[in-house]
Write the structure tokens for this entry.
Amino acid sequence: MPQAPDFPPANPDYRTEVERILQAAPFIRSLGVEAVEIAPGLCVTRLAVREEHQQQDGFVHAGVLATIADHTAGAAGATLIPAGAIVLTAEFKINLLRSARGRELRCVGRVLKPGRTLIVAESEVYAGEEGATLVAKATVTLAVVTPR
């Protein structure tokens, strides 16, 4: 399993918040993204690839790769925020390294730099048999906000 960064969570109930982030987002729920591992500064997700995730030539659509990379990095960032705060993506960049095929995607999101107002995280998306092939890498800046 991936190594979690050594960051202390601000909310002892961070796992519940990450589960909420993954289950309460209608788009993420409809895609089928689910948590595999949650730890302070780390979130690992998986997605069972379905036909509707593919583009016209049978590869996983770039939008699906970007979505799982963004949301998993956001979930990793959410493990470090205080109760009552939320994270919103302020910026992200993704490198699509190769085409993605296979029955499952696995995404590893890690916080690189935690902060009170901004968190920088990265995520790596793996595909192929046993999730062995790195297909995308993203850098995500998250704004930490308190809803009004």
